[in-house]
Design a protein that fits this description.
With about 160 residues, this protein is mainly α.
Length: about 160
C-alpha cells in the first residue's frame, strides 16, 4: 500500500490524483506530528520541568535540528517519489518537477534581496501554484501510457 511513497520504480509507476493527495497529506501530517514532538521534547528538556524561555529554546536548537533534518530529508524523498509517479500518470517525465523547484529556489533567493524583488518573487510563485493545482486536480492519462498501466484500471 505504501510502496508508492518510497520508490520511483525506475521509469515505471503511476499514481492517480486521489492517492497523490492522500499520501502527500499523510506524509505531511506524520512529519508535523513528529516535528511537534521533537520541538516539545527539546523545549521541555525531556520532562525537566523548566519554564520555556528564549534562552531554553536557543539551547534546544542544536538537538532540534539534529532530529528535524533527517525527518525533512525523508519528507522531501517521499514528495519526490509521489510527484514523479503523479507526473507519470499525466504522461510527463518526472524531470518536469525540477522546473517548479528551480522557480521556487529563484523566488526564495529574490525574496531575500529586498522589497522590490519580493514582488517579483511573489509573481514567480503564481506558475508554481498553477502547477500544484494541475497535479492535484487534472485527470491522469486514460489507459496505458509509456510509464505503465492506468492505476484506475487496476483498482
Amino acid at each position: 500500500m505504501f510502496k508508492d511513497m518510497f520508490t520511483i520504480s525506475g521509469r515505471w509507476g503511476r499514481l492517480n490524483r486521489q492517492r497523490y493527495f492522500g499520501y502527500g497529506f499523510l506524509a505531511g501530517f506524520v512529519w508535523f506530528l513528529l516535528a511537534m514532538g521533537v520541538l516539545l521534547f527539546s523545549l521541555f528538556g525531556g520532562g525537566s520541568g523548566e519554564s520555556i524561555s528564549a534562552m531554553s529554546f536557543a539551547g534546544a536548537m542544536p538537538s532540534l535540528m539534529l532530529l528535524l533534518i533527517p525527518m525533512y530529508v525523508a519528507l522531501i524523498w517521499i514528495q519526490i517519489c509521489l510527484t514523479v509517479k503523479r507526473l507519470h500518470d499525466l504522461n510527463h517525465s518526472g524531470w518536469w518537477m525540477l522546473l517548479p523547484a528551480g522557480m521556487g529556489f529563484v523566488a526564495g533567493f529574490l525574496a531575500e534581496m529586498g522589497d522590490a524583488m519580493a514582488t517579483v518573487a511573489m509573481l514567480i510563485n503564481i506558475p508554481i501554484i498553477i502547477y500544484a493545482i494541475y497535479l492535484l486536480f487534472w485527470s491522469g492519462t486514460k489507459g496505458d501510457n509509456r510509464f505503465g498501466p492506468d492505476p484506475l484500471d487496476q483498482a
